[in-house]
Specification:
The complex is a heterodimer of chains A (768) and B (197). Chain A has 27 helices and eight strands. Chain A is mainly alpha-helical and 768 residues long. Chain B is built from seven helices and two strands; from the N terminus they run H-H-H-H-H-E-H-H-E. Chain B starts with 34 loop residues before the first helix and ends with a strand. The chains are: A mainly alpha (768), B mainly alpha (197).
Chain lengths: 768, 197
């Protein structure tokens, strides 16, 4: 290769510093909100009677802040720092970089205002309202444009493994985010998702699970691949492990979403895919852990002295622990115990605090001295941070394991020869885990204390320091001829062709019956043998092709996109293309009345789904406790679906008609009126605020547009129907000694709650 | 593990291929994939094949819904087999006189019923804001004979806010609660019809 002209490039490290400081600030905010809501679970009074401080509204703020604000900013800092150096190019556009930074911070501020106000879409980690969804998508595109433009201007032709993970992140998050946020607005601040019922649930967890995969995992793996060998000053353990675990990880992850819906009314084939693909994901995830930990071989001595290595080693270990626990929880029988309990909360915090939080800390401690050209203020404070954080996580996770397993066992326990539940009263199981929930507050408190110490340490380090931008001398090389792969080179080569054939063969095997099924199996096995034979004899060609792929950013991105898109296509398209009236299991919910719909939107606004499921699983203890298991048709008109993912309180799928209005009224006013020891907030504001009847016509119009069979009422008719029903309920309440204005929100919410589980049988086949 | 001096590479590194290309000072070994790791991956793939075949293709697996229905059927049969005659008033009065039943009934009452009918059983008579009516007086809304009281507790009066307790508690505990209620009454007490408020 001819040596070209030498130029010096100065990196845009200002943007890295900005994102790094934002990481610290939003990290503290997100974690403090977490400690507050954890406290509320023990002391319900900790919302101070304020609607905007109530658990159901702040829990989405906590999750969004930690995911998108804390890890988001950390990811951008790490990606921008490492990419510039790995591809030997300054970020393509200072304007796009600044737009990315300020746009993202504005979105976070807007989220921190709207979520406590109860402005939400009611889908986990996808709560932000539609104008903010558009803003997120636009800023993500800005990020993508800036990143890929930088790749286009790179002086290092070959893409390092960290860049592969960044590419996977950017493409996949864009795809997931856009599809799961498709909605039709009913007003400036409110919208309904276009998917409903099981379709919405499937799309939600395709997104939700892969937010974990492609927002919390792949970018951080990329960051690990840059910062960990840098800090350890050791070569990466194995390049071929990088190749195998990258491709298997991005391909398999996408399929695992349905493991969030195991034992529900989700069709069985999807549950099977969710479970088996989650198990297959175990090894690829551990490939990342191995490449991290084994890179530290020969650098273990630094573990004693360098806090950066401490954080990285512990972070990668927590990654390994969480990615073992994930497949374990995806086994249907384990999930029957753990799902809806604190075990899941413990699992995600092992990931968020252990993996994300510690990787962030390691990266920040490594970056600060380099970005401000001044040694870290105090090594011992960084060590203190490490031990506080470590102790905090262990306390937190152990408490949640104990809590989740205890409550799961209690909820499933039966007595008298298995004929009745041992603990029929849900509150007994809640009271049993209260001490453990308190330990969580302590663990979380220790963790955030460590984080605050880091904030102070960083502040002391950079106070008065002069920011410096890195620079590098590069040789401008003319593109070598024959490097470009082109379309043929991208697709027509042994690795891609064999992978495609094996994939098609196994899909034929999975989804057909009879002789075609056997053919699929034989074809798959034949292709596998052929591929092994080819690889054994012509392995060099495979390696050479991959080396060439690494200098072709666009073909690499296209193949990555195909690998991540295919799982979603196969799971989601069949569920979308079938008329949803056929996915009802012989039961169809009746359409909500206008007042019930208003009440449903209040249920979503208050975030009831954060603690209550509406999904009775196909499990004996669930059926004994809550009634007949839920059928798909019972949530068919629900935009958004409200199956839920956690039961801090009992399931509500069949709560309708179980108690009278007065019971519901008293319970909402102060749950402890009815259930001694309940930790549910008192919803006194529902007794004061008026129901928004005026919004109903627009809402029902959108519901009709989405295919929900509301009659074509005029706005005046809708108003009359809603007010008439509200009067009826208020009259009944008065007869029971509860005096409330029919126009108060509590009346609408009671109307909705009393409608839950009220189905009408489906008409005979072919009807409707 | 930390005994190793940081500067010396581990001995097993010798002879391992290191990739030529260096990215911003980062080098990469090209070590073989650990066997146990490969077996984990292959094992999971084999599990997928076998499990998918068993659950989806073999036709041997029972779907979740029918399996639960069958289990609930067995439970219903077991309950029926061990059930007592809940229409026998004399049996309930016997139970009401036996502390073994009334003590157990009181425990269930305190945890579940007292929220509406109050710990004193006096409900609205003690506090007009209480949800449930007085259970100690002789006026009954839904009938005051033991079998009628049992039926009310067991099946509930949903419109009035009284849940059906038998599905939740089972027959034995429900009968114990009824025994506890009856222990506040005497056989032969007058029974008057109360109109619900």
């Amino acid at each position: 290769m001819t040596q070209g002209q030498k130029v010096t490039i100065e990196f845009n490290d200002k943007i890295v510093r900005q994102f790094l400081l934002a990481t610290l600030i939003w990290g503290v905010v997100g974690m403090l909100v977490g400690v507050l809501i954890a406290t509320q679970l023990n002391f319900w009074q900790a919302n101070f009677g304020q609607a905007w401080l109530s658990f159901g509204r702040l829990r989405p703020l906590h999750t969004n802040a930690v995911i998108f604000a804390f890890v988001g900013n950390m990811m951008f800092a790490g990606i921008y720092y490492s990419t510039q150096r790995l591809v030997k190019a300054r970020l393509a556009s200072d304007f796009l970089s600044a737009l990315h930074f300020w746009g993202w911070q504005l979105i976070i501020v807007a989220a921190a205002i709207t979520l406590p106000l109860g402005l939400t879409r009611g889908k986990e980690y996808a709560e932000l309202i539609w104008p903010l969804n558009i803003a997120v998508a636009v800023i993500w595109v800005v990020f993508a444009a800036n990143f890929f433009w930088t790749l286009a201007r790179r002086h290092e032709k070959s893409l390092y493994v960290a860049i592969w993970f960044y590419i996977g992140t950017i493409i996949t998050v864009a795809m997931l985010y856009i599809v799961n946020h498709l909605s039709i607005p009913t007003s400036l601040l409110h919208s309904y998702p276009i998917f409903g019922g099981v379709q919405d649930g499937l799309v939600q967890w395709w997104y939700g699970h892969n937010a974990v995969a492609f927002f919390l995992t792949t970018p951080i793996l990329g960051i690990m691949y840059y910062f960990l060998p840098k800090a350890a000053e050791r070569p990466v353990y194995s390049y071929r492990l990088s190749v195998i675990h990258f491709w298997s990880l991005v391909f398999l992850y996408i399929w695992a979403g349905p493991h969030h819906l195991l034992n529900t009314s989700l069709p069985n084939w999807l549950q099977m895919l969710g479970m088996t693909f989650s198990l297959m994901l175990w090894a690829p995830s551990w490939g990342g852990m191995l490449n991290g930990l084994l890179t530290l071989r020969g650098a273990w001595g630094k573990l004693r002295t360098d806090p950066v290595i401490k954080f990285f080693a512990a972070g990668v270990t927590f990654y390994g622990m969480a990615t073992f626990e994930g497949p374990l929880l995806s086994i249907k029988s384990v999930n029957a115990l753990g799902h809806y309990t604190d075990w899941i909360i413990g699992h995600v915090h092992a990931g968020a605090l252990g993996w994300n939080g510690f990787m962030a800390a390691g990266m920040i401690y490594w970056l600060v001295p380099r970005l401000w050209n001044k040694p870290l203020h105090s090594q011992s404070l960084a060590n203190l941070h490490f031990w506080l954080g470590m102790f905090g996580i262990l306390l937190y996770v152990a408490a949640m394991w104990a809590s989740g397993i205890s409550q799961g066992l209690m909820l499933n326990a039966t007595a008298e020869g298995g004929t009745i539940l041992k603990y029929p009263n849900f509150i007994e199981t809640l009271n049993a885990i209260r001490p453990l929930m308190l330990l969580r507050v302590v663990g979380g408190g220790l963790y955030v204390t460590g984080f605050l110490i880091m904030g102070w340490n960083v502040w002391q380090s950079i106070r008065g320091a002069r920011a410096v931008n890195g620079s590098m001398e590069v040789f401008v090389e003319a593109p070598a001829p024959g490097e470009s792969l082109g379309v043929r080179g991208t697709f027509l080569n042994a690795p891609v062709v064999y992978t495609t054939l094996i994939f098609v063969g196994s899909c034929v095997w999975m989804f057909t019956s009879g002789w075609l099924n056997l053919l699929g199996l034989l074809a798959t096995m034949f292709c596998v043998l052929l591929a092994i034979g080819h690889f054994e004899s012509r392995g060099k060609a495979w390696a050479d092709w991959y080396d060439r792929l690494l200098v072709n950013a666009l073909p690499f991105s296209v193949l990555t996109f195909l690998a991540v898109a295919v799982g979603g296509l196969i799971q989601i398209i069949p569920m979308m293309s079938i008329d949803r009236r056929l996915q009802t299991e012989d039961r169809v919910a009746r359409v909500y009345t206008p007042l019930e719909l208003a009440g449903r939107d209040l249920y979503v606004r208050e975030g009831c789904y954060n603690c209550h499921s509406q999904m009775i699983r196909t499990l004996v203890p669930d059926v004994m406790r809550y009634g007949d298991y839920s059928r798909l048709g019972e949530s068919i008109w629900d935009h958004p679906y409200q199956w839920g993912s956690k039961r801090t309180g009992p399931d509500l799928a069949r709560i309708g008609g179980k108690y009278n209005h007065a019971w519901q009224y008293d319970h909402l006013e102060n749950p402890r009126n009815i259930s001694t020891g309940s930790n549910m907030p008192s919803y006194t504001w529902l007794m004061q605020q008026p129901t928004d009847y005026a919004a109903l016509p627009a809402k029902i119009r959108v519901q009709r547009l989405l295919g929900v069979p509301f009659p074509s009422w005029s706005p005046a008719m809708i108003d009359t129907l809603a007010k008439t029903q509200a009067k009826e309920i208020a009259q009944e309440l008065r007869a029971q000694g509860r005096y409330v204005d029919p126009d108060r929100e509590v009346v609408a919410l009671i109307a909705y709650l009393q409608s839950l589980g009220q189905t009408s049988q489906a008409p005979a086949a072919g009807g409707q | 593990m930390s005994a190793m001096p940081p500067s010396t590479p581990p001995p097993e590194d010798s002879g391992i291929k290191i990739r030529e290309h260096v990215y911003d000072g980062i080098q990469e070994y090209d070590q073989r994939l650990p066997n146990w790791w490969l077996f984990t991956l292959y094992g999971a793939i084999v599990f997928w094949l076998v499990y998918w075949f068993a659950q989806m293709l073999s036709g041997l697996a029972t779907a979740d819904g029918p399996a639960v229905d069958a289990a609930m059927g067995r439970i219903a049969a077991a309950k029926m087999a061990s059930s007592i005659d809940v229409t026998n008033d004399a049996k309930f009065w016997e139970m009401a006189a036996a502390p073994a039943f009334t003590d157990a009934g009181k425990q269930t009452y305190t945890s579940l019923c007292a929220a509406c009918h109050l710990a004193s059983l006096r409900g609205k008579s003690e506090n007009p804001a209480a949800v449930g009516p007085d259970l100690t007086d002789t006026a009954w809304i839904h009938g005051g004979t033991p079998k009628e009281v049992f039926a009310t507790v067991a099946k509930g009066v949903v419109a009035k806010g009284m849940p059906a307790w038998e599905p939740m508690l089972g027959q034995k505990k429900t009968a114990e609660v009824v025994a506890y209620l009856l222990s506040h009454h005497k056989p032969g007490d007058p029974i008057t019809v109360e109109v619900s408020k």
